[in-house]
Amino acid sequence: MNKKFWIAFVAVFVTGQIFDFLTHGVLLTSTYAAQPAGVFRPMEQMNNMLLMVVALIVSFFLTLIYSKNHEGKGVMEGVRFGLFVGFITATPMAYATYATSPITYSLAMQWFLYGMIASVARGVVLSLLFGKK
To answer: Are 62 and 27 a contacting pair, CB within 8 Å?
Structure first.
């Protein structure tokens, strides 16, 4: 793992944190408020350190997978990678949670859509940092 890998890892992590803040801290605040009482832990009980560790692990492995398999075809390769990752991660996160928890469909759909956008953004960042061959 070279310097480019570590720079990409940090960039993917930062990109994810920005999208998580925008999604959960800004765009979905009213949607979260509309959920049935008791569906989510109160803010003071959430384990933010664990969320950060999970984000670091995901960022590391996204960067590792991309670095080992990219073809150097540019931004559209990053978009494709982001779409693949989004379907693998955002679909079960949104719709498996909807199937098993009393959240509204609106929240599940927004989790899916915003998750896809964030995944594509990560893929684009990776493609820009790893560049064309």
So the answer is: no
* 62 sits in which H/E element: helix 48-69
- Shortest CA distance to 67 belongs to which of 3, 13, 113, 22? 3
CA 63 to chain centre: 13
Residue 133: pLDDT over 80: no
Counting every residue, how long is the chain? 133
The pTM (predicted TM-score) of the whole model is: 0.90
Measured torsion, CA atoms of residues 2, 75, 61, 113, in degrees rounded to the nearest 10: 160
Rg (CA), the chain: 16
Q: Could you give the C-alpha distances from 43 to 27, 39, 40, in angstroms and in order?
A: 17, 12, 9
Interacting residues of 132 by C-beta distance below 8 A, sequence separation 6+: 72, 73, 74
**Predicted confidence (pLDDT) per residue in 79-111, tens digit:** 999 999 999 999 999 999 999 999 999 999 999
